[in-house]
Amino acid sequence: MIRGSMVALATPMHPNGDLDWEALDRVVDLHLENGTDSIVAVGTSGESATLDYDEHLEVVKRVVARVAGRIPVIAGTGANSTREAIEMTKGAKEAGADACLLVTPYYNKPTQEGLYLHYKAVAEAVDIPQILYNVPGRTACDMQPETALRLAELKNIVGIKEATGDIDRAKFLIERAPEGFAIYSGDDGTAIELILAGGHGNISVTANVAPAQMAKLCHLGLEGDFEAARALQAELMPLHKAMFTESNPIPVKWAMHEMGLCDAGIRLPLTPLSEPLRAPLVEVLKQTGLL
């Protein structure tokens, strides 16, 4: 089981939107040097919706090559077409990913039975560990806990990224999930509470700019150090909030640009961070010691 701090890696781009391979190497190295436990390549924070199939798998391949087995690489392979999700998951396995993260089908608004059959089809088609991803605020599709628990019975569905921020829901899953099924937070603001309740880690946006701090936070939580974990979370809360002043990954990519990690490139229909929000973001980065 993968535990701890997992970065939902933003995909570096040049100002014209082309992929920036040199910057990708730099940000992967940053995580290897600062204690990140796993890298999620081309998840939704990596702008998976605007990368074509070849670009998507090339990013996964390059991250796998750069990591060279030192930490697990999880590939984002979700889609709102089951056939596309199967093909993407096959490609990620061939690219060397250790596991795949599959967001719920967006826009389609399937029933719970449709969700079950969608994930079951992918799991049966590709023999690689697969992590469910529930983020209804972005997809208009909410996987109910009972559906997640049904899917947890399938041998290669190994966890869920629960990004609702609903700790009661997370506790329900933690209490009822079979042994070996991981419950991850996908909400930086509430992640430590999920971990302290018995969860297994956090797939984090904030970790793109504060990998060492997020790794420390998750490890404190996994060790059950309630007091130290909550104190560090309080210090990081302004940064968590700053990462969501506009739609993710707009703020985090601007923060990475300000920190010199990559250019400010982002693909339409997303745009660079709005001018009035830039100075406050820089101030938060300064306050947290990142600039």
Write up what this structure looks like.
The protein is of the alpha/beta class. It has a single domain, classed as TIM Barrel (Alpha-Beta Barrel). It contains 12 helices and 8 strands. The chain has helices at residues 21-33, 53-67, 82-94, 112-125, 136-139, 145-151, 167-176, 191-196, 211-222, 226-242, 250-258, 275-287; strands at 4-8, 38-41, 73-76, 99-103, 130-134, 157-162, 182-185, 201-204. An 8-stranded parallel barrel has the order 1-2-3-4-5-6-7-8, surrounded by 4 helices. Helix 11 crosses helix 12. The model has no long low-confidence stretch (mean pLDDT 97).
Count of structural domains: 1
Beta-sheet strand percentage? 5-15%
Count of discrete alpha- or pi-helical segments spanning 4 or more residues: 12
Q: Name the CATH superfamily assignment.
A: Aldolase class I
What's the architecture, going by CATH? Answer: Alpha-Beta Barrel
Strand order of the largest sheet: 1-2-3-4-5-6-7-8
Termini gap: 34 Å
* Class of secondary structure makeup: alpha/beta
Reported for the largest beta sheet, the result is: 8 strands, parallel, barrel
Overall average pLDDT: 97
H-E order: EHEHEHEHEHHEHEHEHHHH
Uncertain segments are none
Strands, count = 8
